[in-house]
Every structure is written in C-alpha cells, then in structure tokens.
Amino acid sequence: MAILNNLDTCTGCFTCPIACQVARELKDDEWWMTVKCNGAPNSTFYDDPAGNWSDPSTLKMDWVPVHYPKCDLCVNEQHVLEGHDPYCIYNCPTRSKTFGDLDDPNSKISVKMAELSDRGYKITQLPDAGTGSHAAIYYAEK
C-alpha cells in the first residue's frame, strides 16, 4: 500500500495530520505526519516564501505532506479494511492525496500515477524529510 501526494494541488492546510491525530487518538504533541513548507531556497526563516515581497504576485510556497516512519497507512484500521481511504486522505479538502496498492495496475493510486505521468508530472519520493520519511509515500509535481 502507498500514498501519492499531488504537490501542485496541496495547499498546506494541515487537515491531513490533524485528521490522523484525532482519528488515531494521538497525544497533543504526537504526530505521525506533518506538512513541511518550502519557500525561498536560501532563507534561514522556515516559512519565508520565494519571490519578491514588493510584488506579491511573485510570492510562492510549496507544501510537502511528510509521513513519518511510524505512520502505518492505517492498513489495519477497520475502515481501510472495508475499502475506505485512510483518515488523512478521506479528509483532504483538495483531494491531493491518493491511496492504494501499487502492485494492482487498476488501483486508484496506480491509475492516478499513470494519469499524472502522462500529463508531464514527475513522480518522486523524499530521500529524507529531516526527521525521516515513510518509504511508501510518493509525490507528484510538474
């Protein structure tokens, strides 16, 4: 099982980690995933957007949902066993996340990866997101 994150449609709203935390009844300071932001490439300030402040139309930030190794993709949760999506995917308001079995060419994730690849998207994985990243997480970006 794996998760595909479309970085071109993710808005960084933080709904996915909150949905995970609430549904899994994690402690307030416990996270199995987060959303990192990438702004100006040489900035020392974490949330500094790329672009020119004097022209707000040039400002840009990229959001990257990061699933920590502790994330189990909810594969043993009853709702997933019944064919439903994990909490982070079900609650994503922009439908930027897709879940499924990469070994099944007809699964939602396999079909979405093929569709995005055909449209010129690069499909990648994070080598390490600073605190480690889950191996079954993929990212699509133009």
Write the SSE topology.
Blueprint: E1 2-6, H1 15-23, E2 33-38, E3 62-67, H2 78-81, H3 87-90, E4 97-100, H4 108-118, E5 122-124, E6 137-141
Parallel strand pairs: 1-6
Antiparallel strand pairs: 1-4, 2-3, 5-6
Name of the CATH class = Alpha Beta
Radius of gyration (Å) = 16 Å
Class from secondary-structure proportions: alpha+beta
First and last CA, distance: 24 Å
| Number of separate helices | 4
Order of helices and strands: EHEEHHEHEE
The major sheet is characterized as: 4 strands, mixed
Side-by-side strand order of the widest sheet: 4-1-6-5
Count of β-strands: 6
**CATH architecture classification name:** 2-Layer Sandwich
Proportion of strand residues:
15-25%
CATH topology: Alpha-Beta Plaits
Oligomer state equals single chain
Proportion of residues in helical segments: 10-25%
What are the segments in which pLDDT stays under 50 over at least 5 consecutive residues? none
Write structural notes for this entry:
Helix content is 20%, strand content 20%. The strands form two sheets. A four-stranded mixed beta sheet has the order 4-1-6-5, with helices on one face. A two-stranded antiparallel sheet has the order 2-3. It has a single domain, classed as Alpha-Beta Plaits. It has four helices and six strands. The chain is α+β, with helices and mostly antiparallel strands and 142 residues long. It starts with a strand and ends with a strand. The protein has helices at residues 15-23, 78-81, 87-90, 108-118; strands at 2-6, 33-38, 62-67, 97-100, 122-124, 137-141.
